[in-house]
Amino acid sequence: MHREMTTFARRARASAGRMHPELSLVSYTLLGHLEESGGCRATDLAAHYALDKSTVSRQVAALERAGLIGRRPDPDDHRVQMLELTAAGTRILAQVTESRREAFRERLAGWPREDLERFADYLLRYNAAAATAPPRPSGTA
Fold it and tell me: E strands along the chain, which residues?
């Protein structure tokens, strides 16, 4: 199972990078969250994904350099900067998302409906368990 999950993750990382040289899987994920939330602070991203602030800071800097995100003052606290997608960020995110969906459609095209439903249920269960589990320290299984 570990080998298959690793292969799945490797393919996901590669698909994001093929669409835009600045877009790692983490960057793609952050862009998706910014789209869903309508914008948020970098500290919100770090907390939501249980990432170190320095990791998010590097990703945010790369996304800003690529012109995919911008900053605006928080309407509730003008000392705080909110991150939001730019038009280019919205366009790239849509392209990468569609590319990934098409890859899924191609890979799953021959699957019977029952298998697809079971697979979706398993993924839902896996992701729900991962969302409620506390983060493990590095180096633990």
Answer: 69-74, 77-85
